[in-house]
Amino acid sequence: MNADHLRIDAARLLVRLDRLAEIGAIEGGGCCRLALSDEDKAGRDLVVGWMRDLGLAVSIDRIGNVFGLRAGTQALPPVMTGSHIDTVRTGGRYDGNLGVIAGLEAVETLNAAGVRTPRPLVVAFFTDEEGARFAPDMLGSLVYAGGLPLEEALAAVAIDGKVLRAELQRIGYAGDAALGIHRPSAYVELHIEQGPVLDAEGTTIGAVEDLQGISWQEIAITGQSNHAGTTPMRLRHDAGYCAAATACFLRGLAREMGGAQVCTVGRIDLGPNLINVIAARATLTADLRNTDEALLRQAEARLDAFLETLARDEGVAIRTKRLARFEPVTFDPAVIRCIEGVSSRLGYGHRRMTSGAGHDAQMLARVCPAAMIFVPSVKGISHNAAEFTAPADLEAGANVLLHTLLALAAKEAF
Ligand code: HGY
Ligand code: MN
Ligand code: MN
Fold first, then answer.
1. Of 51, 177, 242, 360, which is the most buried if we count CB atoms within 10 A?
2. Does the predicted model carry a pTM greater than 0.85?
3. In 3-state terms, what secondary structure has residue 47?
4. Residue 5 C-alpha to ligand 3 middle, in angstroms?
């Protein structure tokens, strides 16, 4: 049967997005479902229930990645889509969730039309994409792609001190499916852009061709607590000042390097964190990104040199710990062209673009041809409860996903 006329049910898509957003709901319409938290479990349980309602065969692998398989007419490697349903603390309702819910919507549309694709389809959600509780980010898809040993991932310690293995068992998602299950012939992920480009241009679809490099470090500074009133400035070993100076240095570095270089200090913890005590300890995080690997390494080297000078000048000890390091990724030209062709056929404006954010697709790209579909984020806001994508754009993205999956799932594809 010709499926060109098929379109997703936008109302149904929005109902599921809203229902999932109720779990871990925060003020302003966003959600907080940190990886492997009770809220993440509740979100997982809801989505697994939908997968089963749609007749998908559900598998859970040993790092808690979840896969819903829809049989094809041929015993061929499947086409996979998906994303993540864990969030940051100030998460919006679309980041990650859209890609999983739109995958389920594509399945329901095909079920309703009685369309069976030659290749099987898999809708997946991956464990701990955000990395906000357990570093690194994209942890589940990295393990799935063989980029991080399972035991090392299971031993990861959260920012709250919990161990990943125990949390995975506690929420009941320590599965027994083999890592790498359902090795796909191709992977495509729908995601909000989380940046300002599509919204500013008024373009509906982004065909994502590459994704920038990511460098995460934790910096631990040990100084000396002392009295805020009696200690002369020249005798201080002030970890609080050093943390602030590092944040200012990184802002200046990004400005000086320009181009795609971005630097973020998202977390600073001081100890003892009291108004009249010079901070003895500071722990901060540095998130450096660039589309160019050589420039990213330059930025890392500049930070190392700054910290060395700072430790000497301020008489503090500074220890750094790598939390994540991913080189820039280029997506598959054929999958990108497929996304563009579908977008044109469905009448949506589209453009090629780079992803500033990390995504599970960058890990799937290690094992199969992969690419991403972006839809606009209003004002580029994300990792913020105010994250918003217009319903018409959500619908457009889901329709492009549906028809990209149909194209990739044809027998001769890949
Ligand atoms: O950090 C990122 O780019 C993604 O949101 N995990
Ligand atoms: Mn995301
Ligand atoms: Mn995110």
1. 360
2. yes
3. helix
4. 33
